[in-house]
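Hi R.,

Here's the chain you asked about this morning:
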Amino acid sequence: MNPVLDKVTDPTFTNSAKGLMTLFCIGLAHMVLGVGLEDVKIAIPWFPTINFESPQNLIYLYWGLVWYAMYRYVLEHATVFRKHWFNALASSLEIGKIGESFVRQSIFISKDHYYVNIRTIEDLAVHTIDINTYQYDETEYSSELVYSFSFRFNGSYQFESIKSSEDLIHRIPEAVSRKRALAKKWGLKPDSDEHHVTYRSYKITSVRYRMRLLWLKSSHYLKEFLRNGEVFDLSLPLIFNMALFSVWVINELHILK
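And the predicted structure, written out as tokens:
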């Protein structure tokens, strides 16, 4: 097979950062540096030589290959992307971060302290983001978990459910499960549990809540992109190619006018 075709059809090329950055450099050279194609021929063994009479139309083939490569890249690294989105959401909900006001308005309606913890339950292949509230006993120097609001994800960091759990003895009025209107927005419904007052949701009913959570994790993901080398290297090939595609579309629309 032709070496070029053999390279671009290799799965390890189309699903890799190296492949995406190579395609980006080709597009950049064509658009910014003005490198064009004057005469294009593709020779495949045992087949007649293919001549492109209108090489300017190759740009459409190129963008098709770029979008195919980006799709393959996302599929190949989907779990890693979701893991970073998961961590971004957890970080954004901490006290002092951008999502604290959302927690106090929609989850734990109080000015008291809360903690955000990430747990991994190996046996169940489950990852959770827990927003916990404790009651402290100053005489015995101990603490007891009285309320927990958990986002639950599977082993591939795909959302599964939300669990609101309140201690049977130390019930607190600030919990979202005690606020019927807010509980409805989360889609929370009573769930059986012998030791806690538990509510569970498999789908967030409120579109506003879903968009707010998306905005929170997106904003924190952007911060991680700028200071975390792994997130930067993972995301940059996609950002570069989508930015270049946007520039090309704008230029094409300008030409049509």
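The mean pLDDT is 83.

Let me know if you need anything else.
M.
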